[in-house]
Automatic annotation (TrEMBL):
NCBIfam families: PRK04210.1 (NF003253). The active site is at C261. PANTHER family: PHOSPHOENOLPYRUVATE CARBOXYKINASE (PTHR11561), PHOSPHOENOLPYRUVATE CARBOXYKINASE [GTP]-RELATED (PTHR11561:SF0). Residues 10-229 form the Phosphoenolpyruvate carboxykinase GTP-utilising N-terminal domain. The gene is pckG. Catalyzes the conversion of oxaloacetate (OAA) to phosphoenolpyruvate (PEP), the rate-limiting step in the metabolic pathway that produces glucose from lactate and other precursors derived from the citric acid cycle. It is an enzyme of class 4 (lyase). This is Phosphoenolpyruvate carboxykinase [GTP]. It comes from the Bacteria. It comes from Dokdonella soli. HAMAP family: PEPCK_GTP. It catalyses: oxaloacetate + GTP = phosphoenolpyruvate + GDP + CO2. Its EC number is 4.1.1.32. Binds 1 Mn(2+) ion per subunit.
Amino acid sequence: MTSQLDTLNRWVDDVARLTQPDSIHWCDGSDAENRALIAQMERDGTLIALNPETHPNCWLHRSHPSDVARVEHLTLVCTKNKEDAGPNNHWMEPAEAHAKIDALFAGCMRGRTLYVVPYCMGPIDSPIARCGVEITDSPYVVANMRIMTRMGAPALARIERESAEAAARGEQPAFVKGLHSIGELDPEKRFIMHFPEELTIKSIGSGYGGNALLGKKCHALRIGSFQAKSEGWLAEHMLIVGIENPQGETHYVAAAFPSACGKTNLSMLIPPEGYRAKGWKVWTIGDDICWMTPGEDGRLWAINPEAGYFGVAPGTSKSTNPNALATIQRDTIYTNVAVTADNQPWWEGLPGTPVTDWQGRPYDPKNGPAAHPNSRFTVSARQCPSWSAQAEAAQGVPISAIVFGGRRPSLVPLVFEARDWAHGVLVGAAMGSETTAAATGAVGVLRRDSMAMKPFCGYNYGDYFAHWLSFDRPGAQLPKIFHVNWFRKGADGKFLWPGFGDNLRVLEWIIDRCKGEAGAQDTPIGFVPGKRDLHLEGLDLDDQALDTLLGVDAAGWNAELADIGRYLDSFGARAPAALKAEQRRVADALARDEAPVRKAVAG
Ligand SMILES: Nc1nc2c(ncn2[C@@H]2O[C@H](COP(=O)(O)OP(=O)(O)OP(=O)(O)O)[C@@H](O)[C@H]2O)c(=O)[nH]1
Ligand SMILES: O=C([O-])CC(=O)C(=O)O
Ligand SMILES: [Mn+2]
């Protein structure tokens, strides 16, 4: 046995001694194992079978009503120095944190089975991929991890191989250790703790996705971003989508939007009718997380570390996201959706009517929406009609453009392009968005959410901005950086831009800008398309709406830049000087020019 498996065995033994399970099960990821787990969960009521005629092999899980979203106030980053976690994270001293959470883990698995879940984030043969092992007492978590990651025997084999290599170099084993228990599902006894310096995660008291499927936000983003900083790559909250034009060229775009702001939708977009007729195609690589690393050619190459989608159900429909709807007709776990009289899953946005709400009560509109606003589906990525075989490419796909975006009902135009990398990093750092139901707390409050990583960056944001800036170096062939806003509202409170499939019109401009083939207006906030630079044929958009969508309001942007300056200052000495200089450059350009001059530029 290799030293790394010794480490793994010792850790499993230590955890078993602490948590006192009745039995231990090492997951191999096989169909037989999955079937047995599902049957057991059906017997004990954890899963409810849905209509097998309309939704074969689909299951409903109802979580505890107090456990329906990520809990940011209970999510901690425990670095030795508080400053290394930064003001963007909740922090606890590691020894104190271990003591506090271990006391909750003591004896918590009595009467339960401890599952050992080896997994790989990314294609199993990819040098960009990384492995982890989650210990959990929740069979629901095991079934979800099997869909969301490459779980089981192949991952354990990779851990074993990497172990031997690490030992030969005299290094410590490098897999991430994640310990999870649903505990008592008591919000008072709930913590999601990260120890990035120890490659360790400890999560107790929640069975909800982002808190409990430790490969996802905990490993692939919080621990991943910390590893990426020291190893020279980027772990980001981004979708990856391939856009194939009628000439057969495919350009890959990575886009960071905060939770419940449209990543899954954009990654599976169906081109508008006119585009489809000309031969445009859209290919899905990933819908939530992107790991990017500079290749030998200087470009950024990206993999999706996940193997499935944990997507927002409400709003998913034939008109908004037909690909997602087609994906989730079979072999899907639904969490906290409503059901119809004939036992089909239901949520707001679908036709038909629910009879039972997400808590299992007879549906009554007085109780609020039938499906929880953060109800989700878990499904294998391969079931998506737009799934790209490039999602399995070991070297990843080359990224042409990086797109940032958020829910901005006012001020921020439909799309603009940063002048260069440093400006793009400022645009990402300055991202703001209205909060959503993906985390507990008030919804619809505007907050800064740099690179959509506010809940997920495992270290000080100031250092993270510096890490982003560091990619601009000799030989780099970096993607261009853009910002989009699908959520601009008119005076009537309605969205001005149709969104969804029509977002391809914006992606087309973005790709054409990358190729030097589209015009733009040069403004102090960056390059904004003029009305004639976008292809808007067939859209029902009046001139006034378009003026608003593509306008730059100088007074509003002056105030915005001042606020961005204060935000950067909140990171103190860790905020990179180069980023502050960039903020001053844009602020000065705006101040010089009350009504920004727009100069048309060719592509
Ligand atoms: N108006 C408008 N709404 C959109 C658009 N794209 C997505 N949405 C809505 O935004 C909500 C969330 O969309 P998702 O694509 O699931 O968001 P996500 O970023 O993948 O969310 P997470 O899984 O939480 O990270 C859904 O209700 C969508 O209907 C768009 O272009 N315009
Ligand atoms: O992490 C989760 O629970 C779901 C998700 O994708 C997000 O909130 O961004
Ligand atoms: Mn997400």
